[in-house]
Amino acid sequence: MKELQARIKQDGQVLGKDVLKVDSFLNHQIDPLLMQRMGEEFYQHFREFPITKILTVESSGIAPAVMTGLAFQKPVVFARKHKSLTLKDDLYVADVYSFTKKTANKISVSRKFLSATDHVLIVDDFLANGQAVAGLTDIIKQADAHLEGIGIVIEKTFQKGRQLIDRQHIPIFSLARIKAFENGQVVFEEE
Ligand code: 5GP
Predict the structure, then answer these.
(1) Which residue in 85, 100, 131, 118 sits closest to 20, CA to CA?
(2) Domain 32-178's class?
(3) Among the residues of the chain, which ranges form H helices?
(4) Is pLDDT above 70 for 102?
(5) Measuring CA to CA, which of 16, 59, 74, 150 is 20 to 30 A from 124?
(6) Mutate to test the pocket of ligand 1, among 100, 124, 129, 152 (most ligand atoms within 8 A of CB)
(7) Domain ranges in the chain?
(8) Closest by CA position to 128, among listed 97, 160, 152
(9) DSSP 47
(10) DSSP one-letter code for 167
(11) Nearest C-alpha to atom 19 of ligand 1 is from which residue?
(12) Closest CA to 17 of 185, 152, 154, 129
C-alpha cells in the first residue's frame, strides 16, 4: 500500500536493528482515515473469503482490526493480554512471547465470542517472529473455528514470522513489507 509506505518513510523511526516505531499514526496516536483505508485494503483482498469474525490482540491490533470489521460488517474480537492467568473454563488461553517487551504473556478470548461456526481473519499491526499470530492461531484451533487468512499492517520479511505462516499454507496479505533497515532507513520489498 503506497500511502502506508510513504507514511512509514515520513514518520517511522528505526530503533536498533529490528524495531520500527510508528507511534504517531498506529501504535499510540492513531490516524483514523489511514486506518479506514487499511481496513478497506484488507476487505478488498479477502472479500471472497467467508469471513464471520476478525480476531486481533490488544492493544495495537485493535484499530486496524476494527476498520477491517467495519469494511466486512462483521464483529471484531481482541484477545486480552495477561501476565499470568490461572485456568479458567470460560476462556481459550494461549502463550505468546512478546517481541518488543521480551516477556512471556498469556492471551485469552472468551468462549462466548469464538466457536466452531466461525471463519476467522486475523489482523495485526506487525509481523516479526510470528508469536502473536501463533497464539491467535492456537486459540482459533481450541475453538474449532476455521482460520481463513491473516492480514498484517507491517511485515518485517527479514524475521521468521512469514516462513512459519507459509509452512502452514495460510493465506497472508501484508500492506507494507520491510526487507531491511539500512543506516536507520526503511527498505521495502517492492522498491
Ligand atoms: P511477533 O509475535 O510476530 O514476533 O511480533 C508481533 C507483535 O510484536 C506485534 O503484535 C507488535 O505489537 C509487536 N512488534 C513486532 N515488531 C515490532 C516493531 O518493529 N515495531 C512495533 N512497534 N511493534 C512490533
Answers:
(1) 100
(2) alpha beta
(3) 2-11, 32-46, 62-72, 131-142, 161-167
(4) yes
(5) 16
(6) 100
(7) 32-178
(8) 160
(9) T
(10) H
(11) 19
(12) 185
